[in-house]
Amino acid sequence: MTLTxxxxxxxxxxxxxPTRRAILRRLAGGAASVSALAEPFAMSMPAVSKHLRVLQRxxxxxxxxxxxxxxxxxxxxxxxxxxxxxDHYRKFWEESFDRLDAYLKDLQxxxxxxxx
Amino acid sequence: MTLTxxxxxxxxxxxxxPTRRAILRRLAGGAASVSALAEPFAMSMPAVSKHLRVLQRxxxxxxxxxxxxxxxxxxxxxxxxxxxxxDHYRKFWEESFDRLDAYLKDLQxxxxxxxx
DNA sequence: TGGTTACGTAACCGGTTGGTTTATTACATG
DNA sequence: CATGTAATAAACCAACCGGTTACGTAACCA
Lengths: 116, 116
Description:
The structure is a homodimer. The first copy, chain A, is mainly alpha-helical. Chain A has a single domain, classed as Arc Repressor Mutant, subunit A. Helix content of chain A is 63%, strand content 5%. In chain A, strands 1-2 form a two-stranded antiparallel sheet. In chain A, α1 crosses α5. Chains A and B meet through α1, α2, α5, α6 and α7 of A and α1, α2, α5, α6 and α7 of B. The structure holds a DNA duplex.
């Protein structure tokens, strides 16, 4: 398994949680401290800290240091790889009204008729 | 949390596994039976069957029925939503040589020493 | 010096995940 | 009907995840 593939694991896994996606959305508006990031969520700070660690290990955020604050900053570069991977399938979701879609419907139809 | 957001959970989680990504890649070449999908992997068929269930619950595959075979077909539509979500951050990874990048470097620098 | 603030670490807990082996269902064919 | 094949179901296991509470630490401030 290539290194890029390996990173995709971490990237997609990091994106698979609504709290972490919300944190990224917040960071798109600028750097923020941990407590500022934690504020909108009904969870303890250690929980948020864990989410940040996941994001950091996926390379999606960078953590600095300023006195007693650890400002987090968005780093979107891993998202580029994720976007490229997904984009290989673009033609499939743009084929909505084509042969493929008709075939899918046909398949499901046969499935139900047989499985009575 | 919106319904779309909820589906993103399942989509990204499904993509976070190399086996499942490989299955999708294989299905991009056309429908396939479970045993055909299992063949390249060093794991039992029930394990592949579980991966397929994850992909199905994420809506990424559709399963038909033809005699004792359950052909799987790619359904890329959930990927469209994932691509749209990621695309909100495109400007951030295209800003490689801009203010943001400089700020990141500055932040890390301040972490180690003091401002220059 | 001692207190407060911001954050991390450690230990723990219930639920989920990714895999196994074994058994079972569904179908086709001799 | 008996047998073989394709696939799922069930039971089990170790590892991981997302959350908690309790405690530790580093920097600021009075």
